[in-house]
Design goal:
The protein is of the alpha/beta class. It has two domains: 194 residues, 3-Layer(aba) Sandwich (Rossmann fold), CATH 3.40.50.2000; 157 residues, Rossmann fold, CATH 3.40.50.2000. It has 14 helices and 13 strands. The strands form two sheets. The protein has a seven-stranded parallel sheet, sandwiched between helices. The chain has a six-stranded parallel sheet with strand order 10-9-8-11-12-13, sandwiched between helices. It is globular. The two termini are 14 Å apart.
Amino acid sequence: MRIAILGHVRQRIGQPFAGGMESHCWHLATGLRARGHDVVLFASGDSDPGLPIDPVLPVHYEAQFPGAEHRGHAPLIAHIDAGYEAACDRIAVGRFDVVHNNSLHRFPIEPRRTAVVPTVTSLHVPPYDALHWFVRESAVPGHRLTVTSRGQLEAWWPDGAPPQASVLYNGIDPASWPYRPQGDGHAVWCGRMTRDKGPHFAAQAARLAGIPLTLFGAIEDPEYWAAEVEPLLGETVRYGGHIAGTALADAMGRASVFVFTPCWDEPFGLVAVEAMACGVPIAAFDMGAAREVIGPGGCFAPMGDVAALADAMIAATALPRAPQRARVEALFTRDVWLDGCEALYRAVIAEHRAEHGAVRA
């Protein structure tokens, strides 16, 4: 198949990943190419040069408009809209069999667009006002929608999901996250350094539990970092930087517990799955899809309850490690995920052909 992958353009698509959405998009592109598909990634122009990139924007917009994401910044909105409108126009005439849309933008899901090229849209976030109405109106033949958990499906469609919507769990390559049968007694946290990811809670709980903790990830919100996380660093809590690939997998695999602290309605939790692949038990806030994804391999605490999280960390270190890996191999591998993507592509192409005629533009 000739597949257009339309990415989110807040950050570049490449390692080290800024977050789960960027990881999802990169692994989707590389995984589909490895399976023999002709893939074009529509993303920021500064994304991984090893992928065939058609730039939506010359560079990711956080580089040009730092911190403007949630502030209704008119120049940023106009900049993004122009980029996606032009990209959608190019896709429409690009003779693609299907679009996999990860953009979280309203233009690619307009029925006039999905009537031209069959589209699968993956929703990586809970519903929010700027997109919610457009998503609900986009559930038409020739457009399939996926979410990353059952809880997220209910959040987007509390009165019942349309037949075009389904759950598609994210997947990872287990070979990139080698299993280790034993940890060394310390804890790891990984993610974007922002308030909604909660690294300050992880640091506070680790100090209370008496378990050394290393934090990994990009410092996305420097003011939050300086005010609430940096003062907690010391002998037992350290910052390990923003690392990727083998180095991160090695650091994660050596841990005895992974601390997962979503402070919002987390739709999946890719970092938790990566830790589980290494065999690491999870201590987590019971938010969003955390319990659905982590399952019996975790110990949970109410969101914001530092004392309960510290207890969960101590309890998690006693959990067996093999079941964590087994859960990933059963539910969250890249092959299982890509099989699901290909099945959706075939289904939406057939549906589009029945509704609109010719598949390619």
